[in-house]
Every structure is written in structure tokens, then in C-alpha cells.
Hints:
This protein is mostly beta strands and 250 residues long. Helix content is 0%, strand content 59%.
Amino acid sequence: MKKIVLALLxxxxxxxxxxxxxxxxxxxxxxxNIAEVKYPANPSNNRILTYDNQGNLVKIQGTxxxxxxxxxxGKVIIKAYFTxxxxxxxxxEHTVDANGRSSGFVYKIDNGEVKSNQLFEYDxxxxxxxxKTIDVSGETNENHYIIxxxxxxxxxxxxxxxxxxxxxxxxxxxxxxxxxxxxxTTEGAKNIHGKGYTNLLSGYKxxxxxxxxxxxxxxxxxxxxxxYVTKRTFTNLFTNQTSDTExxxx
Length: 250
């Protein structure tokens, strides 16, 4: 992976009176990629992420499965395998534009049989606003996103064209999302689902089509010195149950 090392660049110029003038230091930010994700309550879900020299994700290694990412002109191919046997289980072939943004993918199982297609739409600023899955029987599932200030604040979920549920998202305006994050991608190829959100998610409330609340949650974070999340705590406010996710970087 390509790292940008934190540095202070001091630019010196000569003023008209021939005295050295020192400009304000320019701080080059640290760019990190997620190297490992841990779930303390369920370590079988832990994952190790590997990148190429350009910082592109090439592999996610899990306990029972792993995923590989192949970048070709106009395509990103993601394949899933069993860890124990290296047997292919499924693949997703994304069609991508010059910015690496997917217009959709074909999902196939191990024998090459197509099981579903997904389509993606984006707004003028490059944010994902619609995701549609069409399975082999013709049934459809759709997620529509409303973007405000670089964050998805509402999600409308439809089954076969009928509203099934809706979700309101809240964000912490004081915390920037340092790693790539959309509602469709938390660990994956950068930009594959458009621009990442601006801030860290602080919670969401999910309702059924009639407006009855189904879920009420919060997220809290511990950040490192560069503002990257090292620990995220999810809380279900209905049950008061919590779960932690830990992140390591490279």
C-alpha cells in the first residue's frame, strides 16, 4: 500500500528587502488503509486486508472465507473462496468507470450460474443514490438514498416496488470519515460505490412502512492521533446490547 508520510514542508523565499521569509508550514496528512478488523465478541469474523503498491485492496482474508479483488480495464472482479479448500464459491464482476465507480455487477455462484444482477445510480456529485438487485426470478430489491452535505441521511427500501422500510441516519459533524465508507461499502474497493461519506455515523433509526420503529441504534468511536477509528461501539437502544469492532491500519 502506498503511504503518505507525515511531513512539514517549509518553503523559503526571498523578500524584496532581501530577507529570508519563512512561509507557514504545510502539513501533509497521513493516509492509512485498514489492515485488520477484529470483532472481540466473535473472533471468527476477524479479517485481514491486503493492498497492492497503488493502495488498491487485493484481498480480504477471513477465517472461513477469503475474497480477492482483480482490477481490469473497466472492470473489478471480486471472488469469494473457502479458506480451508481454496474452492471458489461466488464471484461479482463490476463494470466501472474511469473513477472506479461501479454501474453494476453480475453475481455468479461457483459453477458460473448467474443468480442476480445489481445496478447502481449516482447523483451529480458522485454519491450513490440508488441500488437495485434483480434476481433470476425477476424479484427486485431497491435501496434509495438521500444525500445531504455529503452524508446519506435517509434510506428507502423497496421490495418489488413496494416500500418495505425506511431508515434515518445521524452523523457526528465533529468527526470526519477518514476511510472509505458508504451504506454499500465498509470494507472494499475504494470508490466502487461512489464518493465516500463525509462524517462518521452516530446512529440510525429504522421504521416499517407504516412508521413503526423497528431499530434504534448509536455508534461511538475511539480515534487515533490522526483521526482514524480504532474502536467502534454499536449499541442497540432497544435491548442495551453492545458490540465492538476494532481497526488496525498500515
